[in-house]
Amino acid sequence: MSKWITSVVLKFFVGVIFFVSPQVDAAEPASDIDFIGRYPGSVMSAFAESEFDSVKIPLSVNEYKKAENFQSITVEGRRSVRIYDVPNETSTLKVFRSLEKGLQAAGFETKLSCNGENNGCGYFFLRSLMSKQAIESYYKYKFKEFYNLNTGKLHIFSGKRLKDGKNYYLVMVVAQSKYARVMQYSLDLVEVQPLKTESLIVTVSKMTKDIGESGKVVLDGLYFENDSAALTDVSGPALKIIAEYLNAHKALKFLVVGHTDTKGSYNYNQRLSQQRAQSVIKALVDNYKVNAESLKGIGIAFASPKATNNTKSGRSQNRRVELVQVEAF
C-alpha cells in the first residue's frame, strides 16, 4: 500500500478522538492500518494482505423480501484486512459508534451504516456480501462464529475516502454472535488501483515464445493471499490461459516452481514456495482438467532471484511462479 502523508493514526472513544503513534506489537501478526488504528484495549487476532483483489462494497442492506433492491459497487485494488478482539467491552454499539466517528474524522464519507438488531443489517447480509473465497480466506476461521453473526449483535459500516487523488473504500463489521465469548471487529480496506502493467496475465503466445527460447516462463497473473498458498479469485483468467497451453502440449512435462523474496527464513520460504507451486497444480488439475502426471511442483524460496531484494519493486518481481520444461521427473 502506498504510504500516507500522515504519520499518526486514530484511536477512538465515543465522542473523543485521540492521535497516537501507530501501534506495532511484536506479539501480534501485523501492524495497524496506518491511518485508522484500533479501538482502545483491542487485540489483533488476524490479518491479510492482497496485492490485487476484487471487493464488493455495500451501499444498502440486503433485505430478505426485497433482495433485488440490494445496492453495491465492486472495486479492485490492494486489499488490507485486520480483525481485532475486544475482550473488555460488552456494548457492540459503543464500539461501533466510536470507530464510526473515528473513520468519519479520518475523511471517510459514509455509504452505509446499519445496526443489526431486528435484522437492521439485512438477512444473512455478510454471506450475501462476501464472495466464497473471501469468507474462506479472510473470515471463516478468524472472525468467531462468522456464519452465526446474524444471531447476535451486528453492525456494518462502509465508506469512501479520497486522498491525494486516490480512492479508498472500507467495510467495517462489529459483531458478537450469541455463541462467541468475545466481541470482534474487522476492517477491510481497498486502495483502488488498476492491475499494474508488469503484472498483466500471461498469454499463450508468450508461453510458447518463452518456453521455446529459454525453456521456462513466468506465470504472470497469479495472486496469493499474504503468507499463504491460497490463490485469490483474480488468478482465474491466468489459470485458464495456462491450462489452455498445457492441454495443447500434453506430451510435455513441466516443473511448477515457486519463488519468494527474502522476507523471513529460508526454511519458511521454501515451504511457502512449495505450497504455492502445489496450489497452482491443484487448481489446474481440479478446475481445468490438466493432466496431473505432466506437472511436478517444487519450491526454491529465494534461491533464484529475478531482481534485487533491496527494493519493493524487486521483491515483487521475485515473488513468482514459473513453468520449466523438463525431459523427465
From TrEMBL:
Record's signal peptide: 1-26
Keywords: Cell outer membrane, Membrane, Signal
Cellular location(s): Cell outer membrane
InterPro entries assigned: Bact_OuterMem_StrucFunc, OMP_bac, OmpA-like, OmpA-like_sf
Keyword hit for Membrane: yes
CDD domains per record: OmpA_C-like (cd07185)
Lineage: Bacteria, Pseudomonadati, Pseudomonadota, Gammaproteobacteria, Oceanospirillales
GO CC annotation terms, alphabetical: cell outer membrane
Gene3D superfamilies for this protein: OmpA-like domain
Keyword Membrane: yes
Protein name per UniProt: OmpA family protein
First-listed, main subcellular location of the protein, grouped into a coarse class: membrane
Ranges where the OmpA-like domain occurs: 211-329
